[in-house]
Specification:
Elements (H helix, E strand, L loop, with lengths): L10 E5 L2 E4 L3 H11 L5 E4 L14 E2 L4 E2 H14 L3 E4 L2 E9 L2 E8 L14 H5 L3 E3 L8 E3 L1 E2 L11 E2 L9 H5 L12 E7 L1 E4 L3 E3 L16 E3 H8 L19 E8 L15 H15 L4 E6 L9 H10 L3 E12 L5 E7 L5 E7 L1 E6 L1 E3 L34 E3 L9 H27 L1
Parallel strand pairs: 1-13, 2-3, 2-14, 3-6, 14-24, 16-22, 17-18, 17-22, 18-19
Antiparallel strand pairs: 4-5, 7-8, 8-13, 9-10, 11-12, 15-23, 19-20, 20-21
Helix pairs in contact: 1-2, 1-8, 5-6, 6-7
Bound molecules: flavin-adenine dinucleotide and iron/sulfur cluster (SF4) (2 copies).
């Protein structure tokens, strides 16, 4: 069953005080802060679950707290809040001011499972015969063609992957609530509100133009998000092994600034979090594989936040090796190891090579969303949403009543993201109150 052009079934109009676009940690925090002040909020999320990148992380720097222990309660609080409505699988089509209101048109993609009937029992998943690489687990394990996105996904409702489904009918047969609906259609929604917070976050820098780094070509070169899954307590293997042969790696390397501070990729800026997350992962790896050698190849270490320099010094004291050198090329040896060719900056810049069992690319951050064609929200030269008053009101955009939070405005860590989300919610609340006062006057 492939996607077919079908007429929109109906057009529901929904009214709220505030729209939050993006259900990552920034969007959830902004929604909760607004809802706690009694404003009615809708969270529009494009994925099948809220939670953003943070729910996919293992532990977080600098405290090494479990990421899902922080994110899951916020996801649940938003889902159960009387003033918050969450709409998943949604594509924002347009966002405009009309007669003083902000009007968003949204298409909710079909899940092929009835949201009101599904009880999340996973019988469909067990019954489905089709296996597909599970990108939620870094592509290391398989999922079914109908599945619940991940164990703590919200909502806990199955979703059918129409690209891989063979329409065998088994899931519908075993579903105890008759929830599978192969004929579900996209729904067009009109959402009206007075204000909006854009919290659309980031993606990892694509390295398609950087063939010399071997991503997707060399099995034992993985991304930092894949390593987060390997380190997660409920990750794909519950231990760290390398993909090619399941061997526990004895020698692990991190390549810093892979996709940041690199004009050839159009990403000239520093992504700010990669040094810190690489140090965090290296520390976690030292615990998981005490005998492994871990080396971080870097240009500069940017440990910018409170307690971060100490975190870096602790990593050095634990025996993690830091080598100042720009990686020129990554290749594979005949025994599936990975050779790094680098400019050793502390040895007169000579070209050196070293082999490792497993290499992690510390990829940078690029915006996940481009407003072009959807709303006239200006972006900066780096494509992140432009802040109108970066020094005095950093969450204000150039559109009246539209605010921005988290990585949608530029690379940042979780602490800064949550702080900024609180500030955006406060700005939105002041805006809502000022409109109410104007109307009352
Ligand atoms: C490998 C790695 C490890 C990290 N480790 C740490 C750490 O240990 N400590 C730390 O402080 N930081 C860490 N970070 C940074 C952290 O992940 C971010 O600071 C944080 O996730 C930003 O949250 P966000 O809500 O702004 O963005 P996101 O998490 O990207 O959430 C954005 C949400 O918006 C949705 N969205 C996007 N576009 C649209 C649209 N058009 N319509 C609707 N929805 C949309 C997305 O699907 C997503 O759910 C790490 C980052 C990486 C890559
Ligand atoms: S109909 Fe599709 S999703 Fe359902 S069991 Fe068959 S292959 Fe899996
Ligand atoms: S679709 Fe049916 S079988 Fe699948 S999780 Fe939902 S209720 Fe259970």
């Amino acid at each position: 069953m492939k996607e077919v052009e079908r007429p929109m079934e109906n057009k529901r109009t929904l009214d709220f005080d505030a729209i939050v676009v993006g259900g990552g940690i920034a969007g959830l925090q902004a929604a909760l802060d607004l809802a706690d002040q009694d404003f009615r909020v809708v969270v529009i999320e494009k994925d099948a679950s809220i939670g953003g990148k943070m729910i996919r992380l293992s532990k977080v720097f600098p405290t090494l707290d479990c990421a899902s222990c922080i994110t899951t309660p916020k996801m649940a609080a938003a889902a159960h809040h009387d003033n918050i409505t969450i709409l998943t699988d949604c594509d924002l089509q347009s966002l405009k001011r009309q007669d003083g209101d902000l009007v968003a048109t949204v298409t909710q993609r079909p899940r092929y499972v009835d949201l009101d009937k599904c009880i999340g029992c996973r019988q469909c998943e067990y019954g489905c015969p089709v296996f597909v690489p599970d990108q939620e687990e870094g592509g290391f394990t398989m999922r079914k063609a109908i599945y619940i996105p991940f164990s703590n996904a919200i909502p806990q409702i199955a979703t059918l992957d129409v690209e891989n489904c063979t329409l065998c009918g088994k899931c519908a047969k075993v579903c105890p609530t008759d929830a599978v609906d192969y004929f579900q259609m996209p729904e067009a929604l009109v959402v009206r509100a007075k204000t909006a917070v854009m919290a659309t976050g980031f993606n990892l820098t694509p390295l398609n133009q950087k063939k010399e780094y071997g991503q997707g070509q060399i099995q034992n070169v993985i991304t930092s998000l894949q390593m987060e899954r390997l380190l997660a307590p409920h990750g794909p293997y519950q231990r760290v092994i390398r993909p090619s042969d399941g061997k526990e790696p004895d020698s692990i390397a991190y390549v810093q600034c892979a996709g940041s501070r690199d004009k050839s990729l159009g990403v000239p800026y520093c992504s700010r979090v990669c040094c810190m997350y690489a140090i965090k992962q290296a520390m976690l790896l030292s615990g998981a594989l005490p005998l492994a050698d871990i080396t971080i190849y870097y240009m500069d270490i940017r440990a910018f936040g409170k307690g971060y320099e100490q975190f870096f010094q602790n990593a050095k004291a634990m025996g993690i090796e830091f080598v100042k050198g720009k990686i020129a090329a990554i290749s594979q040896t005949s025994d599936q190891n990975v050779t790094l060719k680098y400019e050793a900056q502390e040895e007169d810049g000579r070209l050196a090579t070293r082999d490792h069992d497993l290499v992690i690319l510390s990829l940078g951050m690029v915006p996940d969303w481009n407003p072009a064609g959807i709303c006239n929200l200006p972006t900066d030269s780096d494509a992140f949403i432009r802040c109108a008053m970066p020094q005095t009101a950093p969450t204000r955009t150039e559109l009246d009543g539209v605010f921005v939070a988290g990585v949608a405005a530029g690379p940042k860590d979780i602490v800064d993201t949550i702080t900024e989300a609180g500030a955006a919610a406060m700005e939105a609340s002041i805006y809502l109150k000022s409109i109410a006062n104007e109307r009352a006057a």
